[in-house]
Design brief:
Largest sheet: none
Strand content: under 5%
Structural class: mainly alpha
Shape: elongated
Number of domains: 1
Helix content: over 70%
Distance between the termini: 14 Å
Number of helices: 2
Number of strands: 0
Radius of gyration: 12 Å
């Protein structure tokens, strides 16, 4: 599996986790903010690869 495919799968998983946490804890929760930052990192990696 190439790097972009791997990143794409990680991005989708991270996005799903963030949405789930958002529903559970609210959008301003520290958990959701951290998940959002992780997703941002993955998206930047994908864009730069």
């Amino acid at each position: 599996m190439d790097n972009q495919s791997r990143l794409s799968k990680e991005i989708e998983k991270s996005r799903e986790e963030m949405v789930t946490m958002s529903r559970q804890y609210g959008r301003t929760s520290q958990f959701v903010i951290q998940a959002s930052q992780r997703l941002d990192e993955l998206l930047n990696q994908y864009q730069n690869s």
